[in-house]
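Entry details:
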Amino acid sequence: MDPEYDLFRLSDEHEALREAVRSLAEDKIAPRAAEIDETGEFPKDVYEALVGAGFHAIHIPEAYGGEGGDQIASCIVAEEVARVCGSSSLIPAVNKLGTTPLLVGGSEELKQRYLSEVASGEAMFSYALSEREAGSDAAAMKTRAVRDGDSWVLNGQKSWITNAGISKYYTVMASTDPEKGARGISAFVVHHDDPGFSLGTPERKLGIHGSPTREIFFEDVRIPADRMVGEEGTGFGTAMKTLDITRITIGAQALGMAQGALDAAVDYAKERRQFGKAIAEFQGLQFMIADMAMKVAAARSLVYQAAAKCERMEPDLSFFGAAAKCFASDTAMEVTTNAVQVFGGAGYVRDHPVERMMRDAKITQIYEGTNQIQRLVMARSLLRG
């Protein structure tokens, strides 16, 4: 896709993509969203539908069999799928998160080996950075990789791994030289069937039930040296570059959740009657909906501005990526909460989607860097130098 961006208008190609993703989401995903949430099962049918349309990993370049979608295309897919189902939106989001380290730091051989499988839908790719005692302080990780001839032997664990047990491959960060701290961290590709790799019990989560989250464990997992992503000691830098890029997609996911909740609230306000008239006629509720829509519009502008900057790799990307993720996720939490309020008692039960949207929205303020961390990133970007 040609990177021709207008700050206030997407290209015709991007608008056509939005229409196509929205059509698929409303036809194939929205009818399944409540059931996915209720059962907590990974939606294989949704995955197959996304693969069939080329939306499951639209970011993978054409050179590796992908669609060659740009950063804005990734945001459009995440937003439109999240608008109807937060769990399903993690399919393209996690594929992007897991493979971006290869795109920014991997060898050509490594890209050729793995990206084509993701592009074709044969494999999914997860990302493993956080540990129990190394969440926001990722550089404090305890997972170790020790060189042994032509291999590295991996021991440790990773926590809160999205789509663990579903993904075939995992980008794993491990310390190869503990004395160097962050500069002693390296990245590896681990296969789901590598001896010594195992899965923890599925987490019992507040939301995004249809996207499994588990710990993963490494017990003397032997990794061939050619599965290292980039050079030894570059893993932490690769991880941070990855998050600069992918947290914008989380902003788009949060934006979609907020838009879905706003749409539901507007429709309900027009239909629900109290005191002889639609509740949409009451000024207090009008102000609430106006504020919701205003913040959604502001979040959309920030997310897509950040995506355009990411496509051009502009020097202020770290600030805008953090700002987009932070503002959009805070907006999603506020808008979904207010949508439940618009529905009143009906919004608190599962007969309507807004309580699910509210539960799903919370995680967007936490993963890929808490919003407190995003504010640190923004402040440091402003104060550096």
